[in-house]
Amino acid sequence: MNKSILKLALPNIISNITVPLLGLIDLALMGHLGSEIYIGAISLGSVIFNIIYWGFGFLRMSTSGFTAQAFGEKKPAEAITILVRALILTFIISVFILLLQSPIAWGSFKVIGGSPEVEKLAEAYFRIRVWAAPAALSLFVFSGWFLGMQNARYPMIIAIVVNVVNILLSAFFVFGLDMKSEGVALGTAISQYVGLLTAIVLLLKKYRSMLPNVTKAGIIDLKFMSSFFRVNSDIFIRTFCIIVVFTFFTSKSASINDTVLAVNSILLQFLMFFSFFIDGFAFAGEALVGKFIGAKQIENLKKVVKLLLYWGLGLAIIFTLLYWTGTNFILKLLTSQRDVIQTAQKFLVWVVLIPIASVGSFIWDGIYIGATASRPMRNSLLVSTLLIFAPVYYFLNPVWNNHALWMGMLLFMVSRGVILSLLYRRTILKPLTKKE
């Protein structure tokens, strides 16, 4: 079983590593331009795309869970139809995003705020990168589908291609053509379409024989569509809560001053960096849990859940030690701004606590996605957002200010893992046992 986990987890870790590295390199490119406003601009611009892309992250998650279950049930026709359904939905969503880009930008900056200089640069970044929405959302679907088919190698190839192209183009546009934040946006947009082309080529290479199984009647299967949209709506609410927390975090950082915004943007990269490592095992959980549920192998399901939690805890301990000993070194790699580095020293304790605080939320998310048990995920996020994060911040803010933001964030992550752990037997195991 450990071999199966690692076979899926390691390619996902390799591909996921390129994502935080890209974010780090983008910040590093901006961090060496001589002004902290470029870091803030990338941060604010990225928040808008977090709202857009995280909001539609259900496209990847539901595709992965449903496909893994179809794979376990040995229903290839259903598996390929799931991909087509999700891509059609992606196209419709993308059209709306492009048509509504002006009100999206206006509303986002009204909510997030920031200094006039930062906001102007962030809007230029947004106007360029938004045109990559069709490709970016389609890549969510392809990655989820390949993973559901127990193929972690293809998402790894796609992620590496996208991020290598992105890094090279961004560096060229920023330093070669002096485009600054606009150069990062253009590099990202072009790389997304390169990734989409790569995904299509890989699909045709291995799964071309499945395409004739797609039928009009299969696409509009009302029973499946009802379940598909129910799961997607639950995951959307779950993801929206995460967006609210991270957007609120960035907005309140910006309301303090540009230096704190830059500091928090950089320190959040430590959470993101850990998340993409631990998500390798969470993604393995999506594929294996879905497969075992589809195949009705309950004992294997219990075993893989236990092993995933062990792997997650081990990784969290490693990252805690890494952050405890190496945070200052990493911080200086990301920026040469003295004020940013000095201010960041006051908040490094939160970085050290990130891995242990958040590991449960990531691993359990993967398990629940594979089981398409979307309602408990939704409810856990509503509780963690409304009853944990918000009260903690507002109670502590008058005394702790930025520390209150970090305390709220870490307790938000802890509570998600605890709630899902408590609900596991009742919401996943018990229904499956009854079906037997």
Description:
The chain is an all-alpha fold and 436 residues long. It is 88% helix and 0% strand. Helix 1 packs parallel to helix 8 (153-176). The model has no long low-confidence stretch (mean pLDDT 85).
Give the structure's gist in a few sentences.
By secondary structure, the protein is mainly alpha-helical. 88% of the residues lie in helices and 0% in strands. The chain is globular.
Termini, distance in Å?
A: 23 Å
Please report the total strand number as a whole number.
0
SSE sequence, one letter per element: HHHHHHHHHHHHHHHHH
% residues in beta strands: under 5%
The stretches of 5 or more residues where confidence is low (pLDDT under 50) are none
Whole-number radius of gyration? 21 Å
Overall residue-averaged pLDDT value: 85
Helix percent band: over 70%
Largest sheet: none
Given the structure, what is the number of helices? Answer: 17
Structural class comes to: mainly alpha
Gross morphology: globular
